[in-house]
Every structure is written in structure tokens, then in C-alpha cells.
Amino acid sequence: MGLSVIGSIFNITGIAINRYCYICHSFVYDKLFKPWNTMLYVCLIWVLTILATVPNFFLGSLEYDPRIYSCTFAQTVSSSYTITVVVIHFIVPITVVTFCYLRIWILVIQVRRKVKSEMKPRMKPSDFRNFLTMFVVFVIFAFCWAPLNLIGLAVAINPTKVAPNIPEWLFVLSYFMAYFNSCLNAVIYGLLNQNFRKEYKRILMSLWMPRLFFQELSRAATECPKSKPSPALNNNNQMRTDTV
Asked: What is the spatial distance between Cα 132 and Cα 159, in angstroms, rounded to a whole number?
């Protein structure tokens, strides 16, 4: 669970930095995010994720919590460590992501104003849709995880007074919101991305009318159409000097 939670926020931060460089600094993007560099960035994110979970085994901060019927991070074991976890695993990443997306939004507004007087738009619609999708993912992630982290921060500041006064229903609700965030990502991608909507529709049709689905697959196999590259979610390789 720790790897999933910390990995999610670190990956969202990495994606925000990537989108910031891609849109706001497109001329140096290809130098910063070459294939090998990108692989190293991804590996670095997961190495930091693994290292971030190690202190839990030395401090004994993983305990069974009867309120949520689960073994989880105990916020009252160490006040200093809880504050460190909230700051490094939530506040700092959220601050970085907020900065990146605010800069992107400012640039988008400036570009839209200039586009009105120009013949050719400087930002591709696909780039804006991809940015909007990841921005919504970030906003919902911050909204779902903020209550649990704020409760942890309050408990860490004054454990003896704050911890006993937190209602059980509020703590359980904050955990429910945090877990529910993972369920919302599929809905976000389905609503905001045309490729996901198309495939979701195809899956539902195959479940509702499996015979037609298999007939379509058989017909496609016999016709052997020319293969075309599938559209990627991020058109990084198509970025040229005509974009922002």
C-alpha cells in the first residue's frame, strides 16, 4: 500500500514536470527527455518510492488500526516522522505540481489570446487535452488525499490533544476518500480521452453482443489491414518548433 500511495504522488509529480517542460520549454524538451534519460527518470522515481518506505520498518510505524480493519501507517508513533512524511510525500509534491500546472495554465491563456489574431494555432488540441486530463487527475488526487494528510499533520503537531478528539467517522471517511481515488482515475480517462472512450465502448459492446465482437475480430483478421501506429496519449515525438 505504501509503494502504491507514494509511487502515485511521485509519478504525478514527474508527469507534471514533464508536461511543464513539454509545453513551457519545448525547445529544450528533446534534450531533457531523451529515451534513455526518460528511463532513468522513471527508475529514479521508483527508487525514491522504495527508499521512502524503508523507515517504516525501523520506526515500527506500521500497525493494525481497528477503525479501518487494516494494517496501515500509524500517525501517533513518531510526531517528527509523521510531519516528515506529510511534507515530503504530500506538501512538497503538491506544491511542485501546482507550480507546474499554474505556469501551463498561464501559457495556455496567453496562447489562446494570441491565436485569435493568428491563422495557425501554436498549441495542438491533443496537447491541451492531454494536459487537461493530467490536471484533473492531479486535482482529484489532491482533493482525495488532503483530508488524511491534514489529519496526520494535526495529530503529529499535538498527539495527546488532537488524536483523541478526531471523530472516528472523520478518520474512516478520509481513508475511504484516499482509497476511492484509485477508482476515479479510470472514470477520468474515460470521460476526457477519446481513445479510452472508444475502447470502453468496444468492451461494453463485446460484453453485450459477444457474437458481433468475435465476428468483427475474424473479419479484421481475414482482411489484414495495413498496420498503422496507434495514437499515443502524449505526442512527444511530434513536438516541433511550431508548438509553444
From this structure: 39
